[in-house]
Amino acid sequence: MSDVRVDGSRFRERFESFNEIGATESGGVNRPALSDENREARDTLVEWFEDAGLSVTVDEMGNIFGRREGANPDLAPVLFGSHVDSQYNGGRFDGIVGVLGALEVVETLNDADETTERPLEVVAWSNEEGVRFQPDMLGSGVFCDVFDREYAYSREDKDGNRFGEELERIGYRGEAPCEPRDLHCYFEVHVEQGPFLEQEELPVAAVEGVFGFSWMNVSFEGQANHAGPTPMDMRHDALVGASDVIQAVRRITATGGVDLVGTVGSLDVWPNAINVIPETVELTVDFRSYDDAAVDAAVEQIEAEIAHVAEREGLDYEFEQIMRVDADPFDADCIETVVDAIEERGHDYTRLVSGAGHDANYLNTICPTSMIFVPSVDGISHRESEFTEWEDVLVGTDVLLGAVRRKADEV
Ligand code: HGY
Ligand code: MN
Ligand code: MN
Fold it and tell me: Any alpha helices (H) in 174-237, and if so which ranges?
């Protein structure tokens, strides 16, 4: 295989200009799924895909595919990419490195005038973050038959906007069916979003799997009343109920298994007034572990705690698990392909399991899959100060190039 390398300056220029879209004052980006900023990002991506000679397809979930023909069009393609939707005030690297890195791999092969045996497809998945529309990984989830399209279209943001209508509004409700199809394999390069690679002073990791996780919506309904004259034993305070759940999540993770993590990330109080006993509280719970039994046990425990607290405080409650993805290890051969690509470049590396969810979780259920990680400075992500050194981004992208070329010539 001839020695070709990604073009760091072209990639850097593209990365910087892409991140001007929805740029925030503090150096992050604000491009939540299906927002106007997300539309602008999508439009830019389609233009760049077309400039790189890719034939672009947008499917029913707004997933954007760019196809580069190989010598043998009948062979199943090698798919690689990530997502371009961001957190509210999120980082500039999460997802973007994987999509623009995939485009850079195509450009590098174009420069080398190299035709692979198999077709290549670059992809930008819709709604990976799941912050505006829950659950996350909705675009890849429908593509992998985890969710049906109508369910996805029905998901609402906090203002009651529906996913399907917002997709229509931004012009990305494509015609192509969003369903599983024959893929040779899937790769995704992504920032680690944790501290390990930086602590070990390593530039890259072959990812062996992703934590399983559960997302839950919880709501308590008590009774609003005056904060002054209402005796304590007559209160039905929804926020007291919620506070017990938050403590219980911490308690469950302390004893629930070595890598079990739990988060209450979102909490809405109504009427949220200083002198009114809270009537309703809506909160979310996120449990994750590489041990699926630990996640399931944690979900069971928190549901029991919610029922107990509601009983004690005289509250009504609702509990819904809106998403459960298993911790399935990635494909051994795809992992070793990544390792071969790393070793060919002579990099020190390690093997990691991801605590963050990725579209690769779902692709792993329909085709051989693995990922490549590059370090996150201070282990930070989902924050505007998220950062990865550019030479590390290039290491990861070069490894993606090596892995894709290996798989694309398998017949
Ligand atoms: O939640 C996650 O891990 C991903 O950012 N959607
Ligand atoms: Mn991501
Ligand atoms: Mn993310």
Answer: 196-199
